[in-house]
Amino acid sequence: MEFPVIVDAQYCSPSEVKLTVAKKVLEYNNGNFVITDSEGHTLFKLDQKKVFLRELTVLRDDGDCPVVSIHKKKISLHDTYQVYKGESWTELFTVWDKNMRDAAELTYEIQLEADSEPTFQVKGDFVRRNYEIIFKGASIAAEVAKKHFSLTSMITGKSNYGVLVSPNVDQAFVAAVVTIMEAIHNENKEKHGGKHSD
């Protein structure tokens, strides 16, 4: 099954890629949420210091160029996130929660702008950072888990976890989805009194 290019072909690799999400990194990385490759080089980073998605958040590359903009919209009872290319109004995809139960049990659906129905699902244990992005109900596009992180990342903070991106999957798309899940989890944690530890 062929994965679509969503943000840009430059973010697709013919081989499997391991990314690391580092949340409490040193100040020189401009904030505390960066996504690095297995060598520790920054691939994506957030504009702001805390991972909260208000109306607008921009995910940038290491050279500060905007990769995607994430807009949070309150539509009915669902939190809906629309993702645009760079800082344009070219919509790429939309993410929403399929069923409004406890955050740990949620399934999220992702619909690409060109499609008439969702083609990706995100499911798993979001509290423990152990979930999968699944394409058309069959292929794993990316697997997020505490176990996938490189030794070089251990110096940057305790809240690291890894993302295993399948061959030919758009890494910028995966980074945007991971950022949205991180923000939802952070907001739920604050709402519920921060009972979940990292």
UniProtKB/TrEMBL annotation:
One matching Pfam family: LOR
PANTHER family: PTHR31087, TUBBY C 2 FAMILY PROTEIN (PTHR31087:SF161)
Gene3D superfamilies: LURP1-related
Origin organism lineage: Eukaryota, Viridiplantae, Streptophyta, Embryophyta, Marchantiophyta
Database matches in SUPFAM superfamilies: Tubby C-terminal domain-like
Name by which UniProt lists this protein: Tubby C-terminal domain-containing protein
Domain of life: Eukaryota
Similarity-based family: Belongs to the LOR family.
